[in-house]
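Lab notes, practical 5.
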Amino acid sequence: MSNSLQDWLTSFYVVFAFCAALCLGALKSLLVGPIAGLILIIGNVGVILGLFPAHVLWTVYALVKTNRFDVPLKVAFLFALPVLFGIWLGLSIAGSVLVGVGYGFFTPWVSAFEAFRHDNDSKRFFHCIVDGTWGTIRGSCTVVRDFADICYHSYPLYLKELRESPASLELQPFKFIHVPGCIIVGLLGLVVEIPLYTAIAIVKSPFMLFKGWYRLTHDLISREGPFLETACIPIAGLTILMWPLVVIGSIIMAIFSSFFIGVYGAVVVYQERSFRRGVAYVIAMVAEFDEYTNDWLYLREGSVLPKPKYRKKKVSEQTEFSVRRNRSIQGKLNAVFSEAPAMLVPSLTASRSVREAIQEVKMVQVWQNMIKTCEIRGKELLDSNVITAADLEVWVKAKHVSDAAIVNVGLPCYTFLQTILFSIKAGSDGLLLLDNLEITYLNRPQDRLLDWFFEPVMNLKEQIKVIRLEEGEIRFLEKVVLFGSNTDRFKAWENGSLAPQETLRAAQIEGISRRMVGMIRSVSKFPTYRRKFKQIVKGLILHNIAAESSSRSIPYSVPKAGSTRSVSSTRSTGSIIEIV
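Output from the prediction step:
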């Protein structure tokens, strides 16, 4: 009897918690949603329209100046630019509206359910009311800021790399006769892919709706996956309630992706030098999308639609865009065709429990750990006068990232190298970060962003491990990654480095440094990077100010041997105090 009473009380608590969170979340959405949504929509649309003339000028200038394309291909791109920029305006503004509405109204609602993860009942009630209010408004401002960084900082970096990249040896001459073919196939792709992708997504949406409900209901009855923990049942209940919105979001994502799939047909014409293969690509992509959604929704294999070959050589099935299914169920990777993004279809397999998910390292832990590590390494370099307050001032005032390469690229690259070396010395199978946080193949975050970098980083670590760098060569590599092409600073830092005498050894070290710098430059273009890195620079500025003030507070102190701090560095620190 006691057990049945306890079960009844537990069920009553779950139902009451769900209803309370549902009502409080809806109330918070009505109060906070319009404010956060308007901030995000107005901010993003303002950035899009305000920078649109600059984007057009930057893009045209980069196309004219680049050596990677020949004249006919440049002409084809120039003819396609109005269509591409029209698509950009339409999709970006529509996406901003959808994201603003979704983020503004659903974030406070979900936060009301997440409050039940706290152990204390008083904390649950407090967080159920407070969470998702001011934090949602701040989050919308952060989204606008990150989007502005992409448009103002990251996009010009991509164009600069395109403009300054040398002519490719693999570039085949492009004839003017292919220009009309590229334009026609690009327009044909838009005409064909958009309605057919939309039709396939709408037709298969009922399967996704009912199969998703079936999977979630099965987990609820059997107390598996997200329903295993009592505190998480309200959140999982919200998932069941909001599943139709997930299906609608998948349809919208399918429509959005069809624009890019259709335009890519022009690229196929250029690559294959064949109008016929471009048309074959347009037809094949519809079948690929149909087959992809069949696999995800566990419908029949393959597709009844025609899928003509449009490549002379067979494309490898294993690509960097592979989607990882649940390892506990299937234990293998299912390849996804890299050129056919499909619906945003959540996995309908049995979910992992909350306890299993907690054992993974989260992406936010990696970010915070790397930021903390970079700040610690920066303070060490500041104390050793390897980098100065003037370098920080250059980063603050720089309009472009390349104007402050030592701080923006050299410092994180130096930190990255120290992390790899520390992991090798510790004998780690993965990467060993601060606070003994180790990332391996088993516990790494299941994040698409990390998938793009984890494998190259591990390969780079193995390469450094195999060549067995000596101590002097390690010091030399540190100077290379920190200062790059700045020969004056390179020579000024006496860290006991030893330049390799063998040509092969020098080439190996140069290759390692080039790959590391390339990885950091790629990461620096991500939307959150600049905002996070600004926190590092703030910490370094405060550390430098504290060091300068402590040295001035001792009137008769004798400078340390080799110290190069001067009044000029103090003035530099004073000039950048505004950033703090």
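Observations recorded by the TA: Strands lie at 323-324, 333-334, 431-432, 438-439. The chain has 17 helices and four strands.
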